[in-house]
Amino acid sequence: MNNFIFYNPTRLLFGKGMINQLTQQIPADKRIMITFGGGSVKTNGVYEQVTQALEGRDYTEFWGIEANPDIDTLKKAIAIGKEKNIDFLLAVGGGSVIDGTKLISAGIPYEGDAWELVKKGSSQVTIPLGTVLTIPATGSEMNNGAVISRRETHEKYPFYADYPVFSILDPTVTFSLPDFQIACGLADTFVHVMEQYMTKSNESYLMDRWSESILRTLVQIAPLIKENKQDYHLMSEFMMSATMALNGFIAMGVSQDWATHMIGHELTALHGMTHGQTLAIVFPGTLRTLADKKRDKILQYGERIWGVTSGVPSARIALTIDKTEEFFKSLGLKTRLGEAGIGDDTIEEIARRFDERGAAFGEDGDVTGEVARRILQNCK
Ligand code: NZQ
Ligand code: ZN
């Protein structure tokens, strides 16, 4: 294991009806801003539960944080937050609302333009934030990351602020999710594990087993959720898998990759493609391109997740990658750039951007523009 510091202060409140705990979680004297997305919470009872729990409190609602939260929308919330002296934020939604609210939490105490914070990549000065999660996917409910977009320039970058002080996870609120969002959430969770697992061999037996436990749970529940997406037990497993996949627990002492994510962010920035969908296309291509380098880990993954135990190593690796792609297909996602109508011009633009930014992703920092080009060529 490599040296590490582990820190995660987010209090999790899990289960049916737990939204009513909001009263106890937010101090009574706070001036609250509640942030929302496009309105799904008005159709599934979440809005009512939140506003009932906060009846009599001093709160302002901010609506319209879009999927892949846009800096212009967030600046509007920041302006209102400054004007009203907001000192507590409650994000009610998915990764986009939570991520956007993380930037708002850093933007309210910041004097300058909030995009400067995104370009800087992080901010330590924030106001406290709690969340009510409505879609299992990003892990944003229990980490300090956010990903902020700027549609005007087709850019999308990671940004780090503070962890939510609490997050409420009630699996029943996911019952209204469209099939596509469930598929994207499952793919996102799967690839989050992979970014921290599919790196170097034997750094930690324990982290490998924790990662594999999440992967195996996802493989087990995905077809069952397709049959019944309103099954409390299954959606509980999904919700906890997504949270545990990106809250630091499986990252202790091991290398991390993140090349697939960084390439995926460019597909979203350039084409508006949903996050989980980008990963289902890019990740199999990453494995194909880096199969030699990741050889031993792919063999371990193939054996422990897909039961691939016989044949020469090259055949086992090929079969394992095929099974991974099949899994994404079984969710109902596209797995090739061609299916999404994306061609060489996009591949070249992403390679150019990576070169221009001096990109060095992957566990060894060797995924440059040229390697990204090869990965994307292998996604065709
Ligand atoms: O906006 P509303 O109307 O609420 O609809 C949303 C949105 O259209 C809908 N939805 C959410 N909960 C629902 C629901 N519809 C019905 N019932 C519910 N219970 O789903 C749509 C997608 O929501 P979004 O928040 O965009 O999904 P997700 O949680 O996948 O977040 C994606 C964003 O998170 C970033 C992605 O890049 C993307 O911008 N990520 C954040 C990470 C982090 N903070 O650590 C890591 C991830 O790798 C990821 O990059
Ligand atoms: Zn992700």
TrEMBL record:
GO terms for cellular component: cytosol. Keywords: Oxidoreductase. It holds the Pfam family ADH_Fe_C. GO terms for molecular function: alcohol dehydrogenase (NADP+) activity; butanol dehydrogenase (NAD+) activity; metal ion binding; methylglyoxal reductase (NADPH) (acetol producing) activity. It comes from Phocaeicola massiliensis B84634 = Timone 84634 = DSM 17679 = JCM 13223. Residues 9-171 form the Alcohol dehydrogenase iron-type/glycerol dehydrogenase GldA domain. Signal peptide: none annotated. Residues 187-352 form the Fe-containing alcohol dehydrogenase-like C-terminal domain. CDD domains: BDH. This is Uncharacterized protein. Belongs to the iron-containing alcohol dehydrogenase family. Coiled coil: none annotated.
